[in-house]
Design brief:
The protein has 364 residues and is α/β, with parallel strands linked by helices. The chain has 14 helices and twelve strands. Helix 9 crosses helix 10. It binds iron/sulfur cluster (SF4).
Length: 364
């Protein structure tokens, strides 16, 4: 018997459509012969009474709208089977089950049967018109196990590597947005790059590229792609500095200007303010754009509340203010003024960011 499936994206902000729900829609329509509809948030008009409801979730700190959605749709449709999945549910299933009306099932991880299906982008016409991009995981997991990252826990080591991704591109889409954690660690990265080139698609390596895996051959292949916006790297701790520098130089040598290379710098973890300042200075001296990225524990229920032992609220706030006031889109590009005033003249974090700190607390 055909079922009607209600897909619910809770009322939090995301730049991207709910990929997991779009895959589930494809699975139910194409494999089970069901009908589906997608709603955002609660109090939404629903076309037909559902038999199955899937609520997705994202960041752990966006748990309240998830609870609201579970409660609301459980009450509205008590006869339907309600599943909760997604990132928050996978990372914090016990917390997700605490809701006064708990979901019938909590699904952790990836739905294997839906993973390799073309997501049902017909449910997100605005996205198709505005962005026209297919979001793709050409691999799951990662070869590394950085302690600050949820990927090793959620997806384990590299797996599910695809040789081809053409079947995951929605007709009419002009770009691909890779959500791979470490696409260069896939043995098929070159096949995938070749395919994108042949299909003449724009590309966004959304989760960044691993600087340690950027060789001359990789840099050359990247330069032959139509990169959307920027190439993203990360410089999360000092030891990988030489790799990041080398990657930037290689990308430059194949015509990718430093202003188009965005380097994330993790802070508020085991580092201290001086450590972050040194890494930002390195990035700018190497000619790329620095983007401070505040560490959030993988079980944070409130965003930006965690303060690491070597940091304090004043210094953390100073970074946020500096990003707003002298940053560009939250990043620090290697502009002449910034280089002169902050990078070359300042010897310490406090010297560079004093103007953004509360004066009574400014101590060197
Ligand atoms: S390389 Fe990136 S994705 Fe892989 S474990 Fe480290 S932070 Fe996570």
């Amino acid at each position: 018997m055909r079922s009607h499936v209600l897909l619910v994206e809770p009322d939090y902000y995301s730049r991207y459509p709910p990929l997991g729900l779009l895959k589930l829609s494809a699975y139910h329509k194409n494999v089970c012969g069901d009908t589906t509809e997608l709603v955002h948030g609660i109090d939404q008009e629903v076309e037909s009474e559902p038999d199955i409801i899937y609520v997705t979730s994202l960041f752990t700190w966006a748990w309240k709208p998830v609870w609201d959605a579970v409660r609301y749709y459980s009450r509205e449709f008590p006869g339907a089977e309600l599943w909760l999945g997604g990132l928050y549910a996978s990372l914090m299933p016990k917390h997700a089950a605490l809701s006064s009306i708990a979901p019938d099932h909590i699904f952790r991880g990836i739905h294997k049967e839906a993973e390799d299906l073309l997501p049902d982008y017909s449910l997100v016409p605005k996205w198709n018109k505005k962005v026209g991009g297919s979001i793709i995981f050409s691999s799951r997991g990662c070869i590394r196990s950085c302690v600050y990252c949820a990927v090793p826990r959620l997806e384990g080591s590299m797996n599910s590597m695809k040789r081809s991704i053409e079947h995951l591109i929605w007709p009419g889409h002009t770009r691909v947005i890779f959500f791979d954690n470490n696409i260069l660690a896939s043995p098929y990265w070159k096949n995938i790059f070749e395919e994108i080139k042949n299909l003449d698609l724009r590309v966004d390596f959304n989760q960044g590229l691993d600087a340690r895996l950027i060789t001359a051959e990789v840099a050359k292949n990247i330069s032959e792609l139509k990169i959307d916006e920027v190439v993203r790297l990360s410089y999360d701790y000092h030891e990988i500095g030489p790799y990041v520098k080398n990657a930037i130089e290689l990308l430059n040598s194949y015509g990718i200007d430093g202003r188009r290379i965005l380097v994330y710098a993790l802070y508020n973890f085991t580092d201290d303010p001086e450590d972050l300042f040194e890494r930002i200075k390195d990035i700018l001296r190497w000619g790329a754009v620095g983007y401070p990225m505040r560490y959030q524990p993988t079980n944070a229920l409130v965003k930006n509340r965690y303060i690491a032992p070597k940091w304090d609220a004043n210094r953390l706030d100073a970074i946020q203010r500096a990003r707003r006031v002298i940053g560009y889109g939250g990043a620090f590009p290697p502009y002449e003024g910034f280089m002169k005033e902050k990078v070359e003249k300042c010897q310490s974090f406090v010297e560079a960011f004093a103007e953004f700190m509360k004066p009574q607390e400014v101590t060197p």
